[in-house]
Amino acid sequence: MTTTASRPDVLRYTAFSGDPAGGNPAGVVLDASALDDGEMLAVAAELGYSESAFLTGPPEGLDGPEGRTYRIRYFSPKAEVPFCGHATVTAAVALAERQGPGPLLFATQAGPVPVEVTAAEDGTLRATLTSVEPHVEEVTDADLAEALAALDWPAADLDPAFPPRVAYAGARHLVLAAATRARLADLHYDFARLEALMHRLDLTTVQLVWRESPTLFHVRDPFPVGGVVEDPATGAAAAAFGGYARELGLVPEDAVLTLRQGEDLGRPGELTVTLRAGDPRVRVSGAGVRIG
Fold first, then answer.
1. Residue 4 domain-assigned?
2. Do residue 147 and residue 234 come from a single domain?
3. Domain end among 130, 164, 192
4. For burial by CB atoms within 10 Å, which of 157, 177, 245, 261 has the most?
5. How far is CA 282 from each of CA 51, 61, 244, 263, rounded to the nearest angstrom?
6. Do the beta carbons of residue 86 and residue 262 sit within 8 Å?
7. What angle is formed at CA 144 by the lines to CA 143 and CA 148, rounded to 5 degrees?
């Protein structure tokens, strides 16, 4: 076991905002080689953020940028998750502060995830991750009814233009679209009931969306399976949503979408989702900054 005195430094960053008070905070351990699974979970639980990222040297056989390729694992306060977008952004920004902007490659449980970090003229760092290949699954009527019951959402409050689906781009998310912004804003759900359904369907979050314009969406992500009522900005869900929207023909094959999240929590953030014709993968971009 790692003693408190020898525990690696735990950094704190926020993703999808240039303001430390906005976006989604995550812990980042740049050298987690001395930590076992239980210790990583304990660090994540102590921080209380929706996820934290733990980096080690690259696994054998992974061909990436020399000195900029890492294995990365993500832990919520309750469990390990296969992929986390905002913790990927925070880890990339933390590395770029030390190594400079440029390409990175992260080996995640979901597969290799390239990240490109750039610096704006004012010095703000911005990371763009490229997801694993997305896919979309149907939702049974019974599972949809249970999700709506847990959320206390009448079926009539859904937007019929956006069919409920489970979307994947490294982690599984149930996508439900609200017909109005007021419906999205009014989120008071049965934590235990939604958590049980999400465990049964192997979901990471529920991606609740409302479309303001053809390319602008407001989103919220309940995350009871991680021990968190709501995730303030969710890169993995943004990637999954981009794949969902393209596959269902809700946006063009070439599109740049803006997702605004965290406004209802007082931690506003902005996620940019880029879709490219001929490339099934989804790119998710956002700023990142150290907290404190």
1. no
2. yes
3. 130
4. 261
5. 21, 24, 10, 24
6. no
7. 120
Asked whether the whole model's pTM tops 0.90, one would answer yes
Structural domain including 60 reads: 11-130
Q: Which residue ranges in the chain fall short of pLDDT 50?
A: 5
Total number of domains in the chain: 2
Give the pair of three-digit tokens for residue 171: 């982690």
CB 228 within 8 A of CB 50: yes
The amino acid present at 283, given as its one-letter code, is R
Contact criterion met (CB below 8 Å) for 8 and 29: yes
- CB distance 271 to 261 below 8 Å: yes
Look-up: residue for tokens 């929590």? 265
The answer on 266 and 144 residing in a single domain is yes
Distance CA 203, CA 277 (A): 28
- Half-sphere exposure (Cβ direction) of 33: Cα atoms closer than 13 Å: 6
CATH of the domain at 189: 3.10.310.10
Task: Please check whether residue 125 is in contact with residue 288, taking contact to mean a CB–CB distance below 8 angstroms.
Answer: yes
90, 28 contact by CB (below 8 A)? yes
Tens digits of residue pLDDT in 178-201: 999 999 999 999 999 999 999 999
238 assigned to some structural domain: yes
**4-54: per-residue pLDDT in tens?**
546 789 999 999 999 999 999 999 999 999 999 999 999 999 999 999 999
Q: Is residue 69 part of a domain?
A: yes
